[in-house]
């Protein structure tokens, strides 16, 4: 059993806390803002985990979810049910799909835990159609949340990214837009002001959100 199998049953619990709910709302809003033009298409989530984002997006796309953890896939199946087109156990570094078959391929907080993130990105582009989209959501090294890594958790050894690490690479593969989310610090009392802090953060400190989102249109 790997660490992801071990934590699968409790992975969603943080999102039920007041702080987690507010962070989740901000992340989902940012994610959906980038996906307005992709509704109803054939999509793949790399690292679907427990289906935290997948259950929502499966109502918008014909969605296939991939994960290496059997425990995570089991919970995703329970949570998302028939909304998903299918679930596949597989490796993000060797996607078990033919070239250019998906309209949209996305991964959210997955690259941080891989030994070769560039290879995973290459695989995502490989299975995406020309003119299709590749979306990445990554933890931001420059956010206040990055300074609060808790020892002994899965985030302790995670690689947090800076904007400049990914933006040039993605722009070399197509037209790329980006945004970020969760500008309030990891304190419940301050998160209560998220309605004010989120738009201010996007306006004044867009590179400091806890989660960076990139959308690249392949080959354009």
Automatic annotation (TrEMBL):
CDD domains: AdoMet_MTases. It comes from the Bacteria. GO terms for molecular function: S-adenosylmethionine-dependent methyltransferase activity. Residues 44-134 form the Methyltransferase type domain. Keywords: Methyltransferase, Transferase. One of its GO terms (biological process) is methylation. InterPro entries: Methyltransf_11, SAM-dependent_MTases_sf. SUPFAM superfamilies: S-adenosyl-L-methionine-dependent methyltransferases (SSF53335). PANTHER family: METHYLTRANSFERASE. This is Class I SAM-dependent methyltransferase. It comes from candidate division WOR-3 bacterium. The lineage of its organism: Bacteria, Bacteria division WOR-3.
